[in-house]
Amino acid sequence: MLGNTKFLIIVAVILVIVAAGLGIAIIRSSTRVTSSFAPEPTSESVPNPQTSTELTGDEKRILEIPDGSNPEALAAYGDLISQAAIEASEIKLIDCNTSPLAVKGKLSSIVKFINESDKEAQIAFDADHLYAVPASGQINVTLDFGKGVGIYGYSCNGSTKPVGVIYITS
User: Fold this and answer.
1) CA 122 to CA 141: how far, in whole Å?
2) Pairwise CA distance, residues 104 & 84, whole Å
3) Domain range holding 115?
4) What is the mean pLDDT of the chain?
5) Which of 54, 100, 140, 153 has the most crowded Cβ, counting Cβ within 10 A?
6) In a domain, 12, yes or no
């Protein structure tokens, strides 16, 4: 009887460890960081709308999406965005400067991009998800880029760096 109890405790401990490991793996995969669309450089220089002098330290970190080669950096970035992103249904664009910088929304929900500039804004999440926001107009974007939940950076008018991020949750 004592041997069976010991065996059951050992099995239970092993199952808890395995479940914790799987839980961590699921959480990390559910906050996948995707890189924003960065077009190939052209001979003409495209300025990045939000310069480093206009942003606070936290805002700069929001727009510095790490590449996929460093898992620790990706995890830290995921933590930053999960804390910094605010639930919002609208993103305002003024000359490609976005407000808020980090938005949180559920998968398949809609976010409205409102362009308060007098020129069209081209928003790009990747090569397949490009959106034209008319001058002084707006468009609705469904938060589903074919890769599920995660963090998606976007560029504006060919900028080489992201101007904002959307954190899609389930």
Assistant:
1) 13
2) 9
3) 31-169
4) 80
5) 153
6) no
